[in-house]
Amino acid sequence: MIVAVSATGTEITAPIDPRFGRCRYFLFFDSETRKVEALSNSAGQAGGGAGVQAAQQVAGKGAQVVLTGNVGPNAHQALSAAEISVYTGMSGTVKEAIDCYLSGKLEAADKATVPPHHGMGAGQGGA
């Protein structure tokens, strides 16, 4: 099984990036081989639609699970359509999140945890 984790860096010891669509990196963990592959999130700097683009990137790598801090409604819908389970509320390191998932202690998120455009940051479209 491939687990995708939103991360701030390229190592398994990197902190979780709380943003899914605009995270800096995705780390892909293969639960069978225990190998980790880091991939820059190409959607992170998109003007709009970052969540959907990130979901497509994750699906394209064969992920079946996403571990992240938060996920917006469009990203959640795209991940659900791709039959990818989403687990939110992650914090700490990528390794800690993966260990927590593998222990079976997590419950999948059945909806978005933030409103649309939440991860865009201050000054982008705000008043």
Short description:
The chain is built from three helices and five strands, in the order E-E-E-H-E-H-E-H. It is of the alpha/beta class. It has one domain (2-113): Dinitrogenase iron-molybdenum cofactor biosynthesis domain (Nucleotidyltransferase, domain 5, 2-Layer Sandwich), CATH 3.30.420.130.
CATH class: Alpha Beta
Determine the structural class based on helices, strands and strand pairing: alpha/beta
State the CATH architecture. Answer: 2-Layer Sandwich
Catalogue the unreliable spans: 122-127
- Total of DSSP H or I helical runs spanning 4+ residues: 3
What is the distance, rounded to the nearest whole angstrom, between the alpha carbons of the first and last residues?
A: 43 Å
* Apparent shape: globular
Helix content: 10-25%
Give the total of domains. 1
Mean pLDDT: 89
Spatial order of strands in the largest sheet: 3-2-1-4-5
What is the number of strand segments?
5
| Rg calc | 13 Å
Order of helices and strands: EEEHEHEH
Describe the biggest sheet? 5 strands, mixed
CATH topology: Nucleotidyltransferase, domain 5
CATH homologous superfamily label: Dinitrogenase iron-molybdenum cofactor biosynthesis domain
Strand content: 15-25%
